[in-house]
Amino acid sequence: TAGLTSRGLRVPADVSVAGFDDNPDAAFYTPSLTTVRLDVEGEAEYAVAAVLGDAVVAPAAPVLVVRDSTAPPA
After folding, report:
1. Residues 25, 27, 33, 35: what is their CA dihedral angle, to the nearest 10 degrees?
2. What is the pLDDT along the chain (74 residues), one digit of tens a residue?
3. Per residue, what are the HEC states of the chain?
4. Are strands 34-37 and 63-65 parallel, antiparallel or unpaired?
5. Residue 8 CA to chain centroid, in angstroms?
6. CA 48 to CA 69: how far, in whole Å?
7. What is the pTM of this model?
């Protein structure tokens, strides 16, 4: 968000920012980062099982974790 701030833009007042993979530090950024949480381990197990022809269980669905870096549309 520093690059946006240096251009005079405010997060989330002017621009909403969202990340991907829910980095453990995302909650501690300023502002805290809205992100999508994935079951990375489940995705990997699913892929390996599919390649090996084993029975596959779908991984958990992605979850949107809303924090302070996003705002509703104006």
Report:
1. 80
2. 788 989 999 999 999 999 998 988 999 999 999 999 999 999 999 999 999 999 888 899 999 999 999 999 87
3. CHHHHHCCCCCCCCCCCEEECCCCCHHHCCCCCEEEECCHHHHHHHHHHHHHCCCCCCCCCCEEECCCCCCCCC
4. antiparallel
5. 25
6. 35
7. 0.79
